[in-house]
Amino acid sequence: MALGLVSTKTARVETEGELMQKIEAAAKIAPLEQLALSPQCGFASSIKGNPLGQAEQEAKLARIVQVADKVWRN
Questions:
Q1: At 38, phi and psi to the nearest 5?
Q2: Positive/negative CA dihedral, 18, 19, 22, 27
Q3: Is the pLDDT of residue 63 over 90?
Q4: Does the pLDDT of residue 72 top 70, yes or no?
């Protein structure tokens, strides 16, 4: 089950703490081994696109990798 916890609509990068809290909450409902972290949807989910540049998109994807490593590789 993919947890779409990273917004593709705003440039603000979610903190590690915010994502960890939400993953911990989800793990109370489903086994952690069955969960994954992902963006909400694509970064260009509308015709106009979203107000994120390449740097913001890369930062959000890097945060996903960082948190996923911490949660699932420990």
A1: -150, 170
A2: negative
A3: yes
A4: yes
Task: Find, among 71, 64, 70, the residue nearest to 6 by Cα.
Answer: 64
CA dist., res. 41 & res. 57, Å (int): 12
Positive or negative, the Cα torsion across 14, 17, 19, 22?
A: negative
CA gap 55, 38 in Å, rounded? 17
> How do residues 10-56 score in pLDDT, each as one tens digit?
899 999 999 999 999 999 999 999 999 999 988 776 666 667 888 99
Measure the CA–CA gap between 36 and 64, rounded to whole angstroms: 10
Q: What are phi and psi of 37, to 5 degrees?
A: -105, 135
Main-chain dihedrals φ then ψ at residue 4, nearest 5 degrees = -80, 75
Rounded Cα gap, residues 70 and 11, in angstroms: 23
Under DSSP, is residue 4 helix (H, G, I), strand (E, B) or coil?
Answer: strand
